[in-house]
């Protein structure tokens, strides 16, 4: 109950002054750092390590009590922490300066875990975490020893030093270079914990050095500048209402640094991160937990992301059909309209695999009751079957919020399936399903199962960012800890029943937190129909990829706004087609035939490129899922030692070999691009470029699309659906400059559990396959891309 009181005080923040509404607003992300600047609170800063056993990594850390004081220098007041005596009664019962548990644990050569507690009581065993794929187990890679002034643990990836007096932690690379260290002093902000005066609950602030030239990436699907240095923002899922601001549908309390480390705050509580915004030399991580549980990863980006996803889980491999085009708008409302769209796609020879029905397939628009409207859908089962025979899967929208007039509302309330408030009532007007309640999960899954048994291919798990902070949940906790877990529980329920009924690992999700990547696919939310929103969408996708999500999509052409922005749509198309999953969606018109005959041809060119590239896309998807890497990849993931690669946030790698630079302005046909070291070959013209800055023309498909020198890109003959792709005959296009003796790539047939390596070597007549990786299952043709056009 004490924590509940804090929710109302800290999570309902005032609207901007421009608003006509006064007072607090619901579901605003909590900003926790303010607790560390409140003079009424008590602060504890670390002192000395009072005990420690190197064999177990456990000991105790002394903390000195402080209060927030102020001092005047040259007519200016400055806040600082100053030691203070105990303020509890009876005296001598409560420790003024407690010694509290501290531990360092290890997982693998890249991963260590730092844990601090604010209670001296017996430590309960760690409960199973929804954020972790499995309990961490020490593989024995680290070796500890007592050294001068402290303790040092070493692995092949680096070392961690734990200082005795004063306590401190230093992380180093294998060469001994300091990567970062704790910052514990009396200057605000710093390393310590706060005890709030209003409820006696506690929160941690973990401060680490931020070095000159250091850059920070990750934190989920962030639409602001890709490098987070200089930014401060809360991490708690919310409806971002666009792709151009600091709010996030999918925040993730994980980041990596260009200095060779990453960090993951293992918590579901709200978090505030400050990467040098308040103090340019500090990263400050504020977490609402009574304990700090921090995983640290050492290595280059692939190693750090791989270690993080090894801990929190990697993406399941979606079905082949999901990599085809998804055709949608808000919204198709009838069987006749759905069949008409399918027929039009086929008659115009626009390849597609999915038709998505958004909010309008129920009797009443937006009123989710899991039933097709009997008035507008004459025979849903036959419709689904007929479309599947023609190579189409159906995707259906739904949400976990039920308005009072929804016929399911009384049942949900009567059965106790909804989140409650402290009075036992719904916290909002709607009944919000409580996915921490097994009965609610079973009820929900049975509703979805009926649709999946009908032949529906995918469920869109929309929303999930508004689980009430002040709610009471069946898990026994409040929304302070359940809010960020809500997307995981919701999406897992939908994904599990989909796998059980159809065998496919596929949903279409908007919200997220650490671990949500295990259940693909997620898309970038509701972007405006503007070039600024398109650029913000790309930044969000790159940031989410750094945060462990292999698969991601976005609304091609934008979701809301100017309905006839054809120039934007035209330039967004190749960006969408060269993303792991491609969906056209938003306010109409979205169907290319409604925009114009010329646009149909342009649309066809982009989507045909995608379908011809399907063997490349599928192989890269399989490899990315296996290694925990994103398909939409920031340049520095492949080129970590190229300083320029860390600066680019408006271009990306699609898989390991394709470089994509979208056009973010109407009327232009060229743009500046930075190419990492090596040679790059234009996918559309065959012209080669050296690494560095260039001003390049886009091709007929309006984007700069390049291929890494020495790459083999497998292609298939064009098909109108992935169902009809001929995998028995594949073309290998070799992109190699004259100085390159051979080329490499990947291939994976549907049903194979791993991608196989491709290798070609230069011969007198061109290139030839060094060996058959699929042992005769495929008939190969090999062509020099200098003589072949897409």
Characterize the largest beta sheet: strand count, sense, and whether it forms a barrel.
14 strands, antiparallel
Total number of helical segments? Answer: 13
Distance between the termini: 64 Å
Stretches where pLDDT is under 50 for at least 5 consecutive residues are: 1-22
What is the approximate shape? globular
User: Average pLDDT value?
Assistant: 94
Describe this structure in words.
This protein is of the alpha+beta class. α6 crosses α8 (486-502) and α10 runs parallel beside α11 (597-612). The N and C termini lie far apart (64 Å). 52% of the residues are buried.
From the structure above, extract its key features.
single chain; 790 residues; alpha+beta; 14-stranded antiparallel sheet; 13 helices; 42 strands; 19% helix; 30% strand
Q: How would you sum up this structure in a few lines?
A:
This protein has 790 residues and is α+β, with helices and mostly antiparallel strands. The protein contains 13 helices and 42 strands.
